[in-house]
Amino acid sequence: MSPGPWGYVLLRFLALVAAAVLFGLLFGRPFAWLSAFLLAYLGWHLWHLWQLESWLRKKLGEPPRDAPGLWGDVYAHLHRVRLQSRARKKRLARVLKEFRKSTQALPDAGVVLDADHEIVWLNKAAGRLLGLRREDRGQRIENLLRAPEFAAFLRADDAERIMRLSSPLDDDMRLALQVVPYGDNQRLLLARDITHATRLETVRRTFVANASHELRSPLTVIGGYLDALVEEPELVEHWREPVQEMARQSERMRRIIEDLLTLSRLEASGAEAERERVDVQGMLASLKKEALARPQRPAVIELHVESGLGLWGAESEIYSAFANIIGNALKYTPSDGSVHIRWYPEGDTACLSVSDTGVGIPDEAIPRLTERFYRVDKGRDRASGGTGLGLAIVKHVLQRHGARLEVESVLGEGSTFRCRFPAERVWRKS
Ligand code: ADP
After folding, report:
1. Residue 399: phi, psi to the nearest 5?
2. Cβ(243)–Cβ(231) below 8 Å
3. What tens digit of pLDDT does each residue of 198-248 get?
4. Whose CA is closest to atom 4 on ligand 1?
5. Would the CB of 332 count as within 6 Å of ligand 1?
6. Separation CA 46–CA 51 (nearest Å)
7. 213, 237, 252, 273: which could form a disulfide with 400 (CB 3.0–4.6 Å)?
8. What is the 3 state secondary structure string of 41-93?
9. What distance in Å separates the CA atoms of residue 387 and residue 394, rounded to the nearest whole number?
10. Does 321 sit in the ligand 1 pocket, CB within 6 Å?
11. Are the C-beta atoms of residues 168 and 130 closer than 8 Å to each other?
């Protein structure tokens, strides 16, 4: 079996010591011989070390020197490692270059921010959309994009949230911004040009608003005549039922149009609702009174209100949201069921909860409830006289108040709708 490189080193060293001892025995002064042999051995190694060091300082192309024994192995090994590391470096540089090229070609702006919101890196589109330049690296982004809502948006640090903003370069250019946290307290700010989509949205919204508005007057006339006809004693008897149905349907159309106009108004107003002082207790009391006055309603309607707890918001909007949720609970609960309305604080926040023992909603339908014209059971829900727009209005109103809608339901047992308002929208009388 071959002794391996270290075996040879050991053998050579032992042979050297043996030779020194032999010389000592032959010529006397064995320690002097031993020291001389060891010094020569050390000198030989130092010389190779010096050679190795000067080779390492040379360029990588230089072939390894011929060296005996272990030194030859060290040269070969180091040469291989250096070649591998050069290949790896080249590969990484190529990947980095490709990555840079692709991020520069992205149509969306990307800006990497550190923990203090200072710009670390940005792509070309960041210049085109946000007006940022390479020289802005190291600057705090809030100092460059000065919209106050942008600073608040950054502080919120919510990856799910998307903020719309006009480009600082062009007021007509609309951007959708998103902040994605990653790594060690870093953030990636993304900005997308949504000018075209926003324009289409505005066209659609204006069309719906105009169409609803135009339909309102003719419908009022038709509804008025139909109401008069229903009351008409001389109406031929076999026409009475169809005319009543026509009056009911025209009333439904009127409500759909009113809801569409409400939605358009909500969409057209800014992102945040105004901050009037809203007396929620009084509002819920009058909603309960209206509910009790309905000819068809669940037997039990209960209201528990924390007094001295109210909201800062748009009163008419909050009224329509609460009326819609309570109206639904009454509509979708049979006459032997019950509806419980509660208005209560939760820490600094406040919550309206409306629970019913009605028909309930299947799990898969819950995420879709706030879509326009979405109905769980088309035939049944249309017959109940709803417009299919109520919860879409609720969603908009809550969004404008920074509030959240939560829905829990068990099919056949009942549902609970909760509106949670943030502390900044809540007032308390102490
Ligand atoms: P609608 O005017 O048809 O009631 P909404 O937008 O208010 O429209 O509600 C959407 C759908 O959600 C309803 O059609 C109904 O199927 C379902 N829904 C809403 N509230 C309740 C409830 N309390 N119980 C059962 N189903 C409900």
Report:
1. -55, -45
2. no
3. 999 889 989 999 999 999 999 999 999 999 999 989 888 899 999 999 999
4. 386
5. yes
6. 9
7. 273
8. HHHHHHHHHHHHHHHHHCCCCCCCCCCCHHHHHHHHHHHHHHHHHHHHHHHHH
9. 13
10. no
11. yes
